[in-house]
Design goal:
By secondary structure, the protein is of the alpha/beta class. The protein contains 7 helices and 5 strands. Helix 1 packs across helix 6, helix 2 crosses helix 6 and helix 3 packs parallel to helix 6. The relative contact order is 0.20.
Length: 184
């Protein structure tokens, strides 16, 4: 297979996962983010990197958002939202953070490919991206390995989520750009 064919197939796999996401669930997450007093995100491995990218854009939208584990992360409580990624539906650190957030009376939202897993079922809101993760990659027929399809679909869907949230908040590309760091 040529490089161009590999790229086209990989792009198709990512687009399929993102496009098969329920628009109503995406709209619900947009509203949850728009109305949260403050937000904390968390994901493991490459899913965590995708959430860090989303966190950066949500900061550009003017939201009070932090990454769990960062030194500047404030406590969560009523009015707060914990947004986690648990592609395979069960991750020990994600489960622990969901428990902590719920004990503090914060809302919880999970992005997953396995909505019946214990992490998403413990959350108030679930956004399912129906794409391959490490939970179902054995014997898979996708070009991309392990959880790459889910992680890449996350990036695509997060960019669309940002556009929807930008409209919901009345922000513009210019107001977002104004919040971009000048310490580069």
């Amino acid at each position: 297979m040529t490089l161009a064919a590999q790229i086209a197939l990989a792009a198709t796999e990512l687009a399929r996962g993102a496009a098969d996401t329920d628009p109503a669930a995406l709209a619900a997450l947009v509203e949850e983010l728009a109305t949260a007093a403050h937000i904390v995100t968390y994901g493991c491995g490459r899913e965590g990197l995708m959430l860090r990218a989303l966190t950066m854009r949500l900061c550009h939208l003017g939201l009070d958002i932090h990454v769990a584990g960062d030194m500047s992360c404030p406590p969560l409580g009523p009015g707060g939202l914990l947004l986690v990624s648990s592609g395979p539906g069960r991750l020990a650190t994600v489960a622990a953070l969901i428990g902590q957030a719920k004990a503090a009376h914060a809302r919880t939202a999970c992005i997953t490919a396995q909505p019946s897993g214990p992490d998403p079922t413990a959350c108030d809101l679930v956004l399912t991206i129906p794409a391959q993760t490490m939970a179902n990659d054995q014997g898979a027929t996708t070009l991309l390995p392990m959880g790459s399809v889910f992680e890449g679909a996350q990036f695509l869907l997060f960019e669309i989520l940002v556009l929807h949230l930008r409209d919901r908040l009345g922000e513009t590309a210019a107001t977002m750009r104004a919040r971009h760091t000048n310490l580069e």
